[in-house]
Amino acid sequence: MSPGEAWPEPETISTDVAVVGSGGAGLMCVLHALSARPDLNVTIVSEGAVGRSGCTRMVQGGYNAVLNPDDSVDLHFRDTLQGGKFLNDQRLAWTLVNDAPRVINELETRVGCFFDRDEDGRIHQKAFAGQAFDRTVHRGDLTGIEIMGRLRDQMFRLEPVELEDVRALDLVHDRVGRLAGLTAIDMRSGRPLVLRARVIVVATGGSATMYRVAAPAREKTGDGVAMCWRAGLAVRDMEMLQFHPTGLLAGDARMTGAVLEEGLRGAGAKLFNADGERYMARYDAERMERSTRDVVARAGYSEIVAGRGTPDGGVLIDISHLGAEEVERRFPGMVQRTRQIGQDLARAPVRVSPTAHFHMGGVLIDADCRTALDGLLVAGEDAGGTHGANRLGGNGVAESTVFGARAGDTAAAIAPHRPLLEPEPAEVRASLERAYAPLGRDAGPWPFPLTTRLKELMWQCVGVVRDAEGLAEASKELDVLAEDVDRIAVPGPPEVNFGWQEAMDLANQVTVARTIAHAAAWRTETRGAHARSDYPDSDSRLRYVVQRRGAADGPVSAIETEVRDVEFSYRAPDGDST
Q1: Binned average pLDDT, 10 residues per bin, the chain of 578 residues
Q2: 527 has catalytic annotation
């Protein structure tokens, strides 16, 4: 596309429900919407292959649900709040633990998932860190593949419209400000699309790929949260970015950052520093390796920066004492993964490092996934509040399916009562101008070096442990990056243009990164996944940070911040129910 050349005339598609994202939350939403109202027209907008991309498919560990009579929903709720350092939106946390048993039953009996079972035929539940009871349902160590494969099968039966390799850009309104649809680009043809929709569900996943060492699929670049942010939606807990304590170290290989899941530590894996010391005794002598992710990740990071790490900047996880045959039987996927990089989980310690994994922050929603914008629902990792300051392992895929199901139910209930509106042409034009601008410039920065700058900046300054100096530097540099992103030039046509895709990814990543750095600077305490070396203690007053987009000065918009007290709707930190 030459400078000044306009993009093609956008194709307009009309649908009742547009679901942006095709992971666990997105496909559960489609399943529930079409099961409740088979007459609905439901369209999936997916950057990758429907059901075969994204993060739910990567889940190894499992799904937390209360199934054992000796366990209880109240106990799961307590564990979730304690793990989240009581920063959770308790309405959402209660919805998660209360719905999870029903949804896991639905996944087995309706969707067709097969989970591991005990000898007596009951679903097997394994130990995960931070929980008082073994409640993690799984299929070996490939639980996500099982869930997504079966949900994909349901899509063949339900036949929603599937727009694959299509990137959603912006939510658009009608002339009086009502939600009317979204803009998008078919990344294979490079052609723009406008989707008119009665209801839109945003379920794109998180944004942890903005860090140098990261676990998620590459397409998880904060697109959903960035879309909602530009549309004026409020977000919360953006400083709470979880680092999983055991991400693989594999040099420059793409496998670096891939998670060795919680079940290893639940099964008795031990963590050692390079001196052979089992270091968790220094950080949580009672729970040791079965402490929560925030504590274990911070412990590993502390060992590394203290000079007790491996030469490549890691620590060691060892489960070989169980015996090679047992490890291979229980964790075949992880054993294979380590062997692919020249290590062997079944027979020797494996080098690991904290890895950016999951974003607890996101858009404000209610228990039915509604937002402040009528007709817009948000589910899964794009939503904030469920996990508070730290997510328990096994609560992530539970959240995606529980709230995906709820979003589908809500969409089916409200879609027949919302009109199909006409997007305001000027808003559509502004969205497409911004998206196509890199293709029309003669000169400007190339996106890939800017992405490297972002990843290194976030890892060094807004990483596992933070301080005021680093956060101030991050905010300053992120504003500069935002201006550089606004000048990106990409050669070539729009068809299958990876440089152009990188530019759009980067724009969303920088948008989300700015909110993370600003919220982290405000929170002058250590709580959960947010650790401050200059404020190592936790405050007695529990408050959460809400942010909205303010006035824009060129490519850099102001960030309006509001601080709210946590509501103890069900349980106070002292343990008393309210």
Answers
A1: 66 98 96 98 95 74 94 97 97 98 97 94 90 92 89 95 97 98 97 98 94 84 96 98 93 84 88 96 93 91 94 94 94 91 94 94 99 98 97 94 98 98 97 95 95 97 97 98 97 94 97 98 97 95 96 88 96 70
A2: no
- Please tell me the CATH code under which domain 425-540 is placed: 1.20.58.100
Other residues' Cβ atoms within 10 Å of the Cβ of residue 202:
34
452, 509 Cβ separation under 8 angstroms: no
Question: Would you kindly state where each structural domain of the chain is located, as residue ranges?
Answer: 245-355, 425-540
E strand map for 3-88 = 11-20, 42-46, 63-64
244 is catalytic: yes
Q: Which of 135, 150, 230, 244 is catalytic?
A: 244
- Domain 245-355 carries which CATH code? 3.90.700.10
Give the list of residues 6+ apart from residue 494 with CB closer than 8 angstroms, or none: 1, 7, 185, 189, 190, 191, 436, 439, 500
Question: Active site residue: 37, 78, 236, 265, which one?
Answer: 265
pTM of the predicted protein model: 0.94
- Pairing relation of β-strands 235-236 and 543-553? antiparallel
